[in-house]
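Final report, Chapter 2: Outcomes

The project's central promise was a pipeline that accepts a single protein chain and returns its three-dimensional structure in a standardized token representation, suitable for archiving and comparison. That pipeline is now operational. To close this chapter, we reproduce one record exactly as it appears in the project archive, with the input sequence first and the structure output second.
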Amino acid sequence: MKIAIGCDHAGFPLKQTVIEAVRAAGHDPLDLGTDSTAAVDYPDFAERVGRAILDGQAERGILLCGSAVGANIAANKMKGIYAGICHDTYSAHQGVEHDDMNLLCLGARIIGPEPAREIVAAFLAARFVGNDPGEERHQRRVGKVRKIEQG
């Protein structure tokens, strides 16, 4: 998979670790910035990563900011983006498997490199199970979320 990766200045220190984790999992990172710790605005990078997913340049995305909260809020404003803050492996895979999450948000001031590697690996290894026999309830629930999104 192609994985769009973006961060603000607070997420930048963890970005290279995430890029390496994406490669280690056998996927292709698409680095959408930022490229330093100089102050920038997280919504700009949330939009870049979200647009990459929506435009088909990437199948999933990973956003980093200080806490992951701002990036998560901004990303979820985009129709078709289903972002979740995950600072543990269970949430990272469960968010994909049951909720069809397509964008992982990580707080670089919350977690360190080793947890980030494991969380990214769990996110990338997961797949949505809502179309599997016996798992239709997840498709139904995701459908209800998408209906809310439509207004």
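Archive annotation: Residues 141 and 147 are 10 Å apart (CA to CA).
This record, like all others produced under the grant, will remain available to the consortium after the project formally closes.
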